[in-house]
Fold this sequence. Notes:
single chain
Amino acid sequence: MGALQGKVALVTGGASGIGLASARRLAAAGASVLVVDANGAAARRAAEEIGGAALQADVGDAAAWPGIVETARGLGGLDIAHLNAGVTTGEVDVEKLTDEQYRRIMSVNVDGIVFGTRAVVPELAAHGGGAIVATSSMAGVIAFPGDPVYTLTKHAVVGFVRAVAPRLAERHITINAICPGLVDTPLIDGEIRDTLAGTGFPLIAPDTVAEAVMGCVLGADTGQAVVVQLGREPMAYRFHNPPGPRLPGAEGRIPPGWLADQGRSAPSGG
């Protein structure tokens, strides 16, 4: 009996790269996996390999999500969601960025996470809780000048995960962001792959990232940005809290309990 026997998981962008590795790992642990991908034929091949189900869908389209959740419900409900689908612009010069490039990457990388979370939370809550893992990137915690808009989207994913986590915890749902370095996926192709190969720069295997995803699914931590780097154990990135306001007569500190009184939680991290 696997650790996820009887559970149902969906993986977006599940036909290749990190998504496929994650789908394989979840299935190996006993979960019934719904592979969601814009490439329907590739999604079906992946589903056949792992004994799961497939669905072609555009995760950046809000109207697609009721159907995605309904398909997962047909497998027995929903317990785990790996919101993984992502694209790049491939554009280093913001002056050359087209409207089409910008709208596409925002749709997949940001809308896909927000719409996906919004859609799966009621189903997870109905099952008593569950786990959401969103694929970000090291570009979500550092500035990556090679693709500034990609960096923007991955920072957005990390910020969203950290901000929404306290509310979801009240419903017994964890949500974490996976932030890998350069991974050997179809996103690293063409000139980028040739350049990296020429310098001998090592790429992270998708299976390594999938193991970190499993750690988030099985763990109790939430609101974390989990960094995955070659040769290191996955670790939660430590965010330094910004300076707070100086309050006259209070030594510059926010009164204890004030954030909770406002219905807010303090940022996670160091």
